[in-house]
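Model it.
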Amino acid sequence: MHPLSSTHHAVGELYVQHHSWLTQMLRRKLGNREQALDLAQDTFVRILRSEAPPVYREPRAYLTTVASRLCIQYFRRHALEKAYMESLAHLEPALVPSPKLACWCSRRWMRWARCSMGWAARCARSSCCHSLTA
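Modeled.
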C-alpha cells in the first residue's frame, strides 16, 4: 500500500470521527460558524500536508493544538489587516496606495509575520523596524 493512501485514510477517519466536534469547539471559541468551518477545514488540510505519521493517540488533543495554532495565525492576521486599514484611513487621499500596491504590502507583511512567529517580541520589533527603514 502506498504511504500516501494510508495517510489519507487515517486523516479521513479523523475527519469523520471528529470534524463536527472540532467545528463546535471552534465555533464557541470564535463565535462565528463560517469561520469555525473554515478553520476546521484548514486544520485537516494542515494535517494532510504535515509529515507527521498518521497515528493519533489523543486525536482531540492533537486537533485542538493544530486548530489553536491556526486560530492564533488568524487573529494575528486579522489584527495586522485591521491596523493596516486604520492607518490607510488616516492618510490623505493622494497618499493612499493603489489596490495592487496595498495587496502586495499585505502579502509582504503576512510573509514577515509568518517568518517572525515564535521570535521574541524584541527581536520581532527590531526586525520590523529594520524592514521599514531598509
